[in-house]
Write a structure and sequence with these properties.
heterodimer; A: 196 residues; mainly alpha; Cytochrome Bc1 Complex, Chain D, domain 2; 9 helices; 0% strand; globular; B: 363 residues; mainly beta; four-stranded antiparallel sheet; 1% helix
Chain lengths: 196, 363
């Protein structure tokens, strides 16, 4: 028993040392992620978010929330159960440094224009930054899949599936209509992306 | 404001190992000492001491309540319950642990002897309103045996409906609800004066009104039915520019003290122990988690605040500092709550890195 504990502690210490070796994610694990999120972290599947270029801390927090069952993502259910905090941090590091997806096209100027106004009114740029690249615990919105953004915005506004997530988002979206959300998602998805 | 890029500070939902906790940076008055008492409990906020000396700790985003057991030399921790919506409120009474999330109240009877006890769901009796923002809890049983529960304003600034921006108290079973105070934007820390038994509470001021206004508040509840000003009147009489009405501060109970604009004032603990020097007796320890809604960061500290029982002659000074580098605009820790231990030492939780420090005084 003591030996097992010692081994676990040694592992934890190695993982926290931030050495290049510790930052390796097992290939099998990455292949599992890649099946839906893309080998380059850029999703080509409907409703599945891109992970590439997302801030590390945001990915970490989302992974913890999914593992803990706080965020209910049916496709992810149980997949992170056995992963330690250190392994989730490694996964997050891996995707955070990959190039973010380019702007989704084509852009509808009328919808994007309306979406930009919604973004201005909701002060999205204050936290997500004016180019919507995100930072730290706040996700990158520029270039994210439009369908995923819309799904996520609807969840926030309905207060559903947002356990563990920042309730300030509910406040920010208060009073927006379904059309507002759709325009906002289109504007953000079709924004040119800036590297982290 | 529209061009501002101020944002809430990043929290951390993963374990911070001890070698990443720069304990040596903590500064205390002469004679006081800080040690790392427990770690590996991400999101640690309010603490309560249960039977057998076990410490229960609430969290927000990570959805867990922890139990820390002190075996003498070391502390071990376990997760009592997880997957809740911001279970920030913890309290202990008659052998039962009370856990209050935004949308749920659970009671774990006899948890010290039955660690895996199935909780009693008390939610229905407390009739919790549906909106989530600013409705994470801090809870305490008062000297009157009632459970004190805040219901924050579900917005930064708005005219909230009748269920919000208030402090209520209930009988332990949820009956007998009474609104004790209104016009309270977001209190997540309070305690009862050791002599007068009156409730003193901290309150977060609104965002986006400038670098130096409005201040967070320290308030005193001298009677029931008081109005503390939100949303019309802030701090020492600042009228809100967005939500207006004539004579916005008429009938408003002004704070005992201003606690710093946007400083995120958190836990409040009256010190009644014997370990610290006599000038600390009945003084308040007030935790400030640190500001985000201003360019020059303030807070990230524990203050010791002394005041007369009627709220006059308030004197505040830093007690525990060193969590931020003000010149660089960086921080590494965010003190959130304190808990006085039977030996008179003080536990302080750090929500940023999921740690608890023990503050002791050596004569």
């Amino acid at each position: 028993m003591l030996g097992r504990w010692a081994a676990a502690l040694a592992l934890a210490a190695a993982a926290s040392a931030c050495s290049p070796a510790a930052a390796q994610v097992p290939a099998g694990r990455l292949a599992l992620c890649a099946a839906c999120h893309g080998a380059d972290g850029q999703s080509r599947l409907a409703g599945v978010p891109s992970l590439a270029g997302q801030p590390r801390l945001f990915l970490e927090s989302r992974l913890v929330m999914i593992r803990e069952g706080l965020s209910e993502v049916p496709q992810m259910k149980g997949m992170l159960d056995a992963l330690t905090d250190a392994e989730l941090i490694e996964l997050s590091r891996h995707y955070a440094v990959l190039p973010p997806p380019p702007a989704a096209g084509p852009r509808d100027p009328a919808r994007a224009g309306r979406g930009a106004k919604v973004a201005e009114r909701a002060l999205c740029g204050s936290c997500h930054l004016p180019d919507q690249r995100g930072r730290e615990q706040i996700p990158r919105l520029a270039g994210q899949r439009e369908d995923y953004l819309l799904h996520s915005l609807r969840q926030f506004l309905a207060g559903q599936g947002v356990r563990g997530r920042d309730t300030a988002m509910i406040d920010a979206l208060l009073g927006l209509s379904e059309v507002d959300l759709a325009d906002l998602a289109h504007y953000l998805a079709t924004m040119g992306t800036v590297a982290p | 404001m529209a061009a501002s890029t101020l944002a809430p500070l990043p929290g951390r939902n993963t374990v911070t190992p001890p070698n990443e906790i720069p304990l040596e940076k903590i500064k205390l008055p002469a004679g006081f000492k800080a040690e790392l008492w427990a770690h590996g409990i991400p999101g640690a906020r309010a603490m309560v001491r249960g039977d057998g000396g076990k410490i229960y700790i609430g969290t927000r985003g990570i959805g867990r309540v922890y139990e820390v057991t002190d075996t003498g030399a070391v502390r071990t921790s376990r997760v009592v319950v997880s997957g809740l919506t911001q279970p920030a409120g913890v309290e202990f009474r008659n052998g039962a642990l009370y856990v209050m999330a935004i949308d749920k109240l659970l009671r774990f009877d006899g948890i010290a002897t039955n660690p895996t006890v199935t909780p009693v769901d008390m939610t229905a009796a407390f009739k919790l309103p549906p909106l989530q923002h600013h409705n994470w809890k801090f809870i305490r049983f008062g000297p009157d045996g009632k459970l004190y529960v805040p219901f924050g304003a579900p917005c930064n600034i708005c005219e909230p409906t009748a269920e919000y921006a208030q402090i209520r108290r209930y009988n332990a079973d949820g009956s007998g609800m009474e609104v004790l105070a209104r016009g309270v934007r977001n209190t997540v820390g309070f305690d009862f004066h050791p002599v007068t038994r009156e409730l003193w509470f901290t309150d977060h001021g609104r965002d986006w009104l400038g670098e130096e206004t409005p201040h967070d508040e320290l308030n005193r509840v001298s009677s029931t039915g008081l109005n503390f000003g939100f949303p019309y009147c802030h701090e020492m009489g600042v009228a809100d520019p967005d939500v207006k009405k004539p004579n916005p501060c008429a009938g408003v109970t002004l704070p005992v003290a201003q606690m710093g604009a946007h400083a995120a004032v958190m836990g409040l603990t009256f010190y009644t122990g014997d370990m610290f020097p006599s000038e600390y007796r009945n003084a308040m320890f007030i935790m400030r988690k640190g500001s985000w809604n201003r360019t020059k960061k303030i807070g990230f500290d524990v203050l010791v605040v002394r005041a007369d029982a009627d709220g006059k002659n308030v004197k505040s000074e830093p007690f525990m500092t060193g969590f931020q580098d003000a010149a660089a605009g960086t921080f590494w820790g965010r003190p959130a709550y304190a808990l006085q231990m039977p030996d008179g030492s003080l536990l302080v939780s750090d929500e940023q890195i999921g740690a608890i420090y023990r503050i002791s005084y050596g004569r």
